[in-house]
Design a protein that fits this description.
CATH class: Alpha Beta
Number of strands: 8
Helix content: 25-40%
CATH topology: Aminopeptidase
CATH architecture: 3-Layer(aba) Sandwich
Structural class: alpha+beta
Largest sheet: 8 strands, mixed
Strand content: 35-45%
Length: about 180
C-alpha cells in the first residue's frame, strides 16, 4: 500500500497487474480518451512493468494501481505524466473500471494524488486534458477543484475529417 483514503488505496504497479492492464489497454472503447492507436501485447506490458523503476524523476511518469480498500480488488489506475520538476507541474490521467464508477473512488484517487503531488513532489500544479463531450470526467475534475482554463479546438482527431475539442483543466496549489 502506498497511500490510502477511506475507499481506496494506491499502490505501485506489480507483475500481477499485467493481465488487467492487457484488458484495459486493449479496450477499443477507451482508446479515444487514452490516445491509444495500437494494441499492446502482453510482452510489451511485461517490459513496462519489469523495467519500471517507479522513479518519476527518471521516467517523467508514474502509474499507480487503484484498489478498492474493502475488497482489495484492482479497480483502476491513475497516472502522472509529463512530469516537469523545473516548472513544478505534471499531467494527471485516471481510469476506473466501469463497474466501479459513480461510487466516489475517482474523486478520492484525485485527492490522494493531489496530496502526493504537492506534499511529496513539491509541485505547483497538476493538469488534465478532457474531451469536451466527456461530461462525467469534466464533472469529476471540476468537483475536485480543477478549473477549465482553455479549450483546445479541434485537438483530437476522431475520424477521417472530424475532430473534437479538448478542455485544459488545472489545479494550482496556492499553498506553495
Amino acid at each position: 500500500m502506498f497511500i490510502e483514503s477511506p475507499l481506496v488505496y494506491l499502490r505501485a504497479i506489480e507483475p500481477k497487474d499485467i493481465n488487467v492492464l492487457y484488458e484495459w489497454e486493449n479496450d477499443l472503447k477507451l482508446w479515444p480518451v487514452s490516445f491509444t492507436q495500437i494494441p499492446f501485447s502482453k510482452f510489451i506490458l511485461e517490459e513496462f512493468v519489469n523495467a519500471s523503476h517507479q522513479d518519476i524523476y527518471t521516467n517523467k511518469q508514474l502509474r499507480l494501481m487503484v484498489n478498492d480498500k474493502s475488497s482489495h480488488e484492482t479497480i483502476g489506475a491513475i497516472d502522472l505524466f509529463e512530469f516537469d520538476p523545473q516548472h513544478a507541474r505534471c499531467g494527471i490521467g485516471i481510469y476506473i473500471h466501469e463497474n466501479f464508477r459513480q461510487q466516489g473512488f475517482a474523486s478520492q484517487c484525485i485527492e490522494l494524488i493531489k496530496t502526493y503531488a504537492f506534499n511529496t513532489l513539491n509541485l505547483k500544479q497538476i493538469y488534465a486534458h478532457v474531451n469536451e463531450n466527456n461530461q462525467s470526467s469534466l464533472k469529476l475534475f471540476t468537483n475536485c477543484g480543477f478549473e477549465k482554463n482553455g479549450l483546445k479546438k479541434c485537438w483530437h482527431k476522431t475520424g477521417l475529417n472530424s475532430f473534437e475539442n479538448v478542455w485544459f483543466l488545472q489545479y494550482i496549489n496556492n499553498g506553495v
